[in-house]
Give the backbone structure.
Amino acid sequence: MSPIEIRVHGVGDHGPLSALGSVGLEPSAQPIEGIESYQKPQIPAHDLALVNWSRTSRGVAGFLWYLAIPFTLLNVVGYMKPAERQRGWYTVARLAGMLATVVLTAWLIVIMETVLEYVPGLADKTQLAQGLSAGLPAAAVVAAILCRTWLRPQHRIPPILACAHALLAVVVAAAVLVCKPARIERRSWPNNFGYGGDVPGAAVGAGVDPRADAMMLFVLISTLAAVFLATALWNSAAAVVTMLVFLGLHATGAILRLGTEWLMAYLEYIGAVADRASGMAPSAHVLRAADPQGDRVLLLDLVPIVACAAIVGFAVAFAIMARASKWSDTLASADLPAYRGRWFIHLVITALPQLIRRALIFAFFIYIALAIVIGLVARSTSWSGWPLTVALILTHTIVAGVLVFIAMRGKVSAAPKVFGTVADVAGFWPVRYHPLAGSSYRDEVVGGLRDALGCHREDAVVLFAHSQGSVLGAWLLANEMVPENLQDDAALGAVEGPSLLPPAESLYLLTCGSPLKSLYRGFFPSYFHDQFFLRAGERTAGWFNAWRKTDPIATQMPDAVSGQVHDQEIDEVDSNHLRVHSDYWIEQAPTDWIEGKLTPPAAAP
């Protein structure tokens, strides 16, 4: 066998030749008028293998990945434990996952009630309608969980986790069916108020429904519970992701409910099988309060705009904090205006955990200001007139956008790329905290990469890994033979017995555009700690790390391995065509380093 270079790309649905670099950045030396002419890709003289991988569920799950994103993010939260052992972390993470299942079941019940309002024949069959409204959503959640667990064993979902969440969905549906929260009288909490000058605390005779707005109460209580769990994590990044998930779940549930009502009303309008006059009576609802009379608005319809305001509030706080903290550093280090935007993003992303912590404090004051403004508007207008009109217009615009997004199966502008990137990064972690989280590709890809390296045990091998590929490669080297006393619940599939990889003295690692320090060490310190990097370094005869200041996620490796890793900053060659996170394959410094490692001394010039 002969020396070989093995290239592994990062996230995304790459073609098999992507690791050759971009041909378009190498125009021919003599331009020809009327055509575009390019040089051939840089192909080394030594043997070269291109390892192509993709998230295995990218083509299978498709649009379902959008639905799995909230639960996938909660699964990621479970792995964000601080480096120091924090008691109760995994318990809180699992409780957050269970709360998400409760929220999912509740919103499905509300959506089902909306559908059943238009199903003919249920007007005089109250018990049947109530049983369907609670039973069908629970059955759907249970079926989704159990089918993913037992029909697709490759997901490796713990059976105990799946059974616990399935049982929880059944318990929630049964509790709603037995207690019927929407039928409880609660004069101190009027159903709705808005148009017409109705205000909280108005007399029942004034037209205010005395029943409890049960689903709205549930939204408030579950959001407070999510805040409590997020606070109990004592980790700013994990807390923000947790709250983002629950705000998104409530906003999505309210949007889908309103969109379902639009759809059913349209079916009734065109004479399809939908008749609200003979459907489930609104007074028979078990969770959602009946639609308000007259011009008053259903409070659930305002949930999306409130959730979006909360998310935007934190985004504004983060933007202000990032600008205040990193813009001066950008101006100090960026000589050319073309670089400033890229370098600013680089500084912000590589300091995300710290900036998130600072932004949370600033966001608290923004939320107080928003609450004061909303309180003043509500007090002076009773939510009538232009404030409510603007809120409803924004809500209905969001609903219309979501319906278009669903109709196009997510293929809107840059949405597939953004969500695909999130799914590729989050899919690194095995499913341990919510059974509806997207499946992990890590063990399968790492296993294939191990086999590919094992085919070249007899000669020198350079593993050239880009972006997420560097995470997979380093994970393989660091965890292939982890001592038993160092294993954790993320180091799955450690090889028992002799190593399958080439010997350490003939195996080299080259990482480029790597998020190992900036993101993985920053957000997952319990797994990407000093010992992780030291184990990976000890498993190689040399480690070269290439990065650019214009690359948003690439940095040097941690100080713990400064003596084992040769860090090399790569300068941009053309300010008009920044390479940013791409084309490390064709940079001179890493290619020269590879040639030096794979060229026998006798053949060296």
Notes: The two ends are 22 Å apart (CA to CA). Residues 401 and 407 are 10 Å apart (CA to CA). The beta strands are 4-8, 47-51, 461-466, 507-512, 542-547, 565-569.
